């Protein structure tokens, strides 16, 4: 049994912490939300009143926080110097590469092993323990990182040194956002041309248009029963979170001097969709805006 501090019990973190408890670990869980703490307790975690209490005896510290400033603040002010120096620090948040490297530098300077380990898979995979982890860490530390993530993971890949996990996540989600828009556009065009979206799925999922957005997350009800399109686009990967990741990608592209015109267009479309008030809907709900049927999402 490993003593794990888990900080951040939102839509993703709650399921992740629950899987650590299910694996038999002693999970000291903290969140600012009383409701999140209650759910964690029901899932077998030991809830605590502060970050300091969670990390004081931890062998592994896992954080799942909203954005870079939260990660930097929590690590610099509440974890580093409070958790035992022998603890492994794992940040699973999706943040900018520079902040990830800054936190890693602070942690290493204080004698900690640290990894940025953002995830792919959404809330369903977080609940099922089948997330994909993209890890940035010192090569020598990966042997500790992989088993620590195992109860939450389908696959764990070391992307490279510190910050590489965030780079992989940002690029992956830019690709996902672009491919989902392409899938939604194709469905909208197929419908206008008299081709039923269900029949288009049968064709696209078995031909050169096949991609994850088609085969695993089809944005039209029916063909993929587990997709949020069958639940009125609830309970998946929120459009607001996709917009956040696309903004991170565009910021990174600007700083790196990379040309990402489709990423920029994807960001603009999701900014429009979010501005219309649908940030809480799954990102595949974009299909309704492109069909001109956004009224169906009310």
Automatic annotation (TrEMBL):
It catalyses: 3-hydroxy-2-methylpropanoate + NAD(+) = 2-methyl-3-oxopropanoate + NADH + H(+). One of its GO terms (molecular function) is NAD binding. GO terms for biological process: L-valine catabolic process. The active site is at 169. Pfam families: NAD_binding_11, NAD_binding_2. Keywords: Branched-chain amino acid catabolism, NAD, Oxidoreductase. Residues 163-290 form the 3-hydroxyisobutyrate dehydrogenase-like NAD-binding domain. Signal peptide: none annotated. Residues 3-155 form the 6-phosphogluconate dehydrogenase NADP-binding domain. Pathway: Amino-acid degradation; L-valine degradation. Its EC number is 1.1.1.31. PANTHER family: 3-HYDROXYISOBUTYRATE DEHYDROGENASE, MITOCHONDRIAL, 3-HYDROXYISOBUTYRATE DEHYDROGENASE-RELATED. Belongs to the HIBADH-related family. This is 3-hydroxyisobutyrate dehydrogenase. The gene is Hgd.
């Amino acid at each position: 049994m490993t003593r794990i501090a888990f900080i951040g019990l939102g839509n993703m973190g709650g399921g992740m912490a629950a899987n650590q408890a299910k694996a038999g670990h002693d999970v000291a869980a903290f969140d600012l939300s009383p409701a999140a703490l209650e759910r964690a307790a029901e899932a077998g975690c030991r809830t605590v009143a502060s970050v300091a209490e969670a990390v004081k005896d931890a062998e592994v510290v896992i954080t799942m926080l909203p954005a870079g400033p939260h990660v930097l603040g929590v690590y610099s002010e509440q974890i580093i110097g409070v958790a035992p120096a022998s603890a492994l620090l794992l940040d699973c948040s999706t943040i900018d590469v520079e902040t990830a490297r800054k936190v890693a530098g602070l942690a290493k300077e204080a004698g900690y092993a640290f990894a940025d380990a953002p995830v792919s898979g959404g809330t369903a995979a977080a609940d099922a323990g089948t997330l994909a982890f993209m890890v940035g860490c010192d090569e020598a530390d990966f042997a500790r990182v992989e088993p620590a993530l195992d109860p939450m993971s389908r696959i764990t890949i070391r992307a490279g040194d510190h910050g590489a996990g965030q780079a992989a996540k940002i690029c992956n989600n830019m690709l996902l956002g672009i491919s989902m828009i392409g899938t939604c556009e194709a469905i909208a065009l197929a419908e206008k041309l008299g081709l039923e979206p269900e029949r288009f799925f049968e064709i696209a999922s078995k031909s050169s248009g096949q991609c994850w957005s088609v085969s695993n997350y089809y944005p039209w009800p029916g063909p993929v029963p587990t997709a949020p399109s069958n639940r009125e686009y609830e309970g998946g990967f929120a459009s607001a979170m996709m917009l956040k990741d696309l903004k991170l990608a565009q910021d990174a592209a600007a700083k790196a001097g990379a040309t990402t015109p489709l990423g920029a267009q994807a960001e603009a479309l999701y900014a429009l969709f979010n501005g219309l008030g649908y940030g809480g809907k799954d990102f595949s709900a974009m299909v309704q805006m492109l069909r001109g049927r956004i009224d169906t999402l009310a």
